[in-house]
């Protein structure tokens, strides 16, 4: 079961990746939107994408739109991970195809709760 963590901050990528590994995911990372789009196309069992909003070059919202425009990834849950908590940002994310929204700062329990809301249950997938 694979997860893709996309964030321009190495610290945030590392933290999210560690939480996901503890849940049993194989984790790939991308530091830019362009890297993220390339990685999405190479991962065969992508269970979830955790996507930062604010990145240089191509922001997370544009990455999300491009991922959703490709029908092969329509069912892949995408969680926007951001400090932007105002309602217009949340609306923009969901209108672009976000599956869930995770506010920074976050903890491992909050991340797990978001995954479970999306039906991404690491325990069930490990048992399968």
Provide a compact summary of the structure.
The protein is α/β, with parallel strands linked by helices. The chain has six helices and five strands.
What does this protein structure show overall?
This protein has 128 residues and is α/β, with parallel strands linked by helices. It has a single domain, classed as Rossmann fold. The chain contains six helices and five strands, in the order βαβαβαβαβαα. The chain has helices at 10-22, 33-42, 60-69, 87-96, 108-117, 122-127, and strands at 2-6, 26-30, 46-52, 78-82, 100-103. The protein has a five-stranded parallel β-sheet, with helices on both faces. Helix 2 (33-42) runs parallel beside helix 3. The chain is globular.
Beta-strand portion reads 15-25%
Main β-sheet, in a few words?
5 strands, parallel
The CATH topology turns out to be Rossmann fold
- Return Rg in Å: 13 Å
Q: Determine the number of helices (DSSP H or I, runs of at least 4 residues).
A: 6
Please identify, by name, the CATH architecture. Answer: 3-Layer(aba) Sandwich
What is the name of the CATH superfamily?
Response regulator
Mean pLDDT across all amino acids: 92
Please give the number of β-strands: 5
């Amino acid at each position: 079961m694979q997860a893709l963590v996309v964030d321009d901050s190495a610290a945030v990528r590392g933290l999210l990746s560690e939480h996901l590994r503890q849940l049993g995911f194989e984790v790939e990372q991308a530091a830019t939107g362009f890297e993220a789009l390339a990685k999405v196309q190479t991962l065969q069992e992508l269970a979830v994408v955790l996507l930062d909003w604010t990145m240089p070059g191509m922001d997370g919202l544009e990455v999300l739109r491009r991922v959703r425009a490709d029908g092969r990834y329509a069912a892949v849950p995408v969680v926007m991970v951001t400090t932007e908590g105002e309602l217009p940002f949340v609306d923009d994310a969901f209108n672009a195809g976000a599956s869930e929204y995770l506010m920074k700062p976050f903890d491992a329990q909050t991340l797990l709760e978001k995954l479970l809301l999306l039906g991404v249950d690491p325990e069930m997938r490990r048992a399968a």
